[in-house]
Amino acid sequence: MMWLVGGILLVLIAAFLWMAFFHRVQAMSRQAQLLNWLEIGRVSNPAGGKDILLARNERNSKIDWRTGEVWLVNPKVAESFADYLAVERWLALHDTPLPEPELVPAPAAQPLPEEDEVVEVLAPADDGLPAFRQQVEDCLARAEGGQDLVDTRQAFEAGSPEFLEAGTQLCTAALECHVPPMMVATFYISAFAALSDAAGEDKLDRVTASLQAAAKQIRMMQQG
Q: Among candidates 176, 113, 181, 108, which has minimal Cα distance to 143?
């Protein structure tokens, strides 16, 4: 009897190890991490379950939780990829480098005014947070279902000081750690995707907690 129980335990342990280390989804997740893709949340699969959502700079991808197939979300590609090496090859072929800015010669230095003509002018402090928040909203508007995402974000900010503060913390962390607005927009999309699993007032609390966790994750990335 003891050998039968031991055999069952061995089978269960082997199945757990296979799921944790050798299943295709886990293999794709580890490969993505090696290529600097960051897991930022889960997104609902139309067939049920949650796919893994990842981001790198302004690029987004997901791993199908059932088959382990890799999909590019931004830029959106109709066909899946076998692995992240295939994704990297596609990006290398299709990504267009940004044109280098033209060098404008600096204007000639103007002569300094006479001492009695010098007037001290205090320049206002440069606060880039409002502009960054607007860039995040522009990224949300360009995403799939963009207007609904923008309306949801604005409604939550108007109705919940906690949500507004969590969004401010997220944008501040991203601005200080040089995280692009598209990735911040992806954090919002991931948070809103979890609304279907919550009910009533718990929806707002869950989204707020998700934004707070994203801000903390950005800070940890900077420290690491």
A: 181
**List of long-range contacts for 160-168, beta carbons under 8 Å, 24+ apart:** 160/204, 160/208, 162/204, 162/208, 163/204, 163/207, 163/208, 163/211, 166/208, 166/209, 166/211, 166/212, 166/215, 167/133, 167/211, 168/129
pLDDT in tens, 79-129: 889 888 888 888 888 765 544 445 556 566 566 555 555 444 443 434 688
Q: Quick count: other Cβ atoms within 10 Å of Cβ 87? A: 23
Distance CA 22, CA 56 (A): 24
pLDDT of residue 13: 59
Q: Give the alpha-carbon dihedral of 133, 134, 137, 143, to 10 degrees.
A: -120
Instruction: Please state, as a whole number, how many other Cβ atoms lie within 10 Å of the Cβ of residue 182.
Output: 20
Beta bridge partners of 39: 54
Q: What is the pLDDT of residue 126?
A: 46
Written as one letter, the residue type at 147 is Q
